[in-house]
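Input record (one chain):
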Amino acid sequence: MGFSGDGFARALARLCRLVLAVSAGSVATWWGAAAQEGAVRVKVRTGDTHGVWLKADGSVWTWGGNAHGQLGIDGDHAFAPVRAPGLSGIRDIAAGDQFSAAVRSDGTLWTWGGYAELGNGTAKDSPKPVQAAGLTGVLAVAARAQHILGLQADGTVWVWGDDPASKPAPAPRKVEGLSGVVAIATSERHHVALKSDGTVWIWGDHGAGDLGNGNYGVSSVPLLAPGLADITAVAAGYQLTLALKKDGTVWALGYGAAGGLGNGSKENYSAKPVMVSGLAGVTAVAAGYMHALALKTDGTVWSWGYNHESQLGNMQVQTEESAVPVRSGALSGVVAIAASGSHSAAVTGQGIVWAWGENEGGSLGADPELLPRSDVPMRPGQFVPEACTALFSCRTANGKFIRICGDQDPADVGKWSDIQYRYGPENGPPELMFPEDPAAAKPSLFFSHEEKKGDYVVSIRFSNGAYRYRVYSGSKSGAGVEVADAKRKRLSDIACAESPEMSPAYLQSNLPCDAQNPHGAAACKENPYRGK
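The corresponding structure, as predicted from the sequence alone:
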């Protein structure tokens, strides 16, 4: 049977699971005893043009634009995650517009990148981490735009850089009137602090209307956010504050004209917290320019608000905004999320990073001239069309492609570094791909080929087993790709809108043959081009 439109996408999603085993901004959470004991949690943060990823081993990895050294390496950019040298034993990270920050397990805070946010009293760029002056016993860090917040173990908060709530500070300055703080968050316009009693405090231009100071939400001193109790995590976006309650519900206050309140309305402002619709079992929140994210206990990611750069990560949302949460891609097993500007990011428990939305400066881990944005989560470093050759491909009725795609070694195009199964647009990141992590996959994929009654049969052994693809065209059944397992049991038949493309001689001369394939040693013996 054939599929088209949404039915094809659903069928292909099932196929990939069956055949191929497809197996934050300024986010703040309550550290509690685990943080005080120096535990390392996997995290991800996003800046204006780059991303920062903290692995469980305490190492820091970065990708994207590097105009001011915010990646911690030499060069103009890195379109795949690279390890930032000189950083180890890290337990928290943050990212601003053109800089990054990290907290070591010894309580010192280190920054690198540009402008005046480094906290060492100078305004010079530094690709090498420098220590923020006068700060010790630091538990957490938050950053956005051109400023940083630091949280010390004694519950005090420090700020430096272009502080939106006060005058600029080239070195850390204590925020007066705050104590007992356990988590922090910041946006382009305001700061948020969570106290140990579960209350939320806001200062700067929070856009939520009058919080009791009589000047429509602009305050240089922290003010108690009304109506919030039993809060366990907070996030800050553009004039928007998110609060996660102990019961797993999410509450929002502030600017809502783009749907940022997530309650189905588009009211300009709300000084009182409103509950985000349809969310329960949430474990983390994040906020970008005018969009927000929530991570649920089942490992799925949900987002709402502005979508003009596809930052919601849902291709079904064709409007520029959504006032209610929608699921971001088909992600599962996610343990950390982030949002900044017009893009988002997530990390799974298997240590795989995903990003979506606007690709300014390479923030998605791809060349922005080739990929300006992505409406589905993609892996930083996976979008390399110039190094990808379709072993066979088929255009479906809805204009998408299903293909077996070989990635060649950039240093030697005669060598294959991997073979991938992809589904998605011709030019853009794949919506479904196996393996999920091409960089980590071993090239244990082999090929055998036969021609039968005018049809081509390609057998490829993936790490989870061998599969047989019969590529047919010109017959009564039309054109398509029939997928079967090693025992020739048909798993699916995918209709093509036009004849599939395939080059048997090219395949035979470029891919190694393996006796463990369904056609066995005979197919290898009959192939005069068998690779060694």
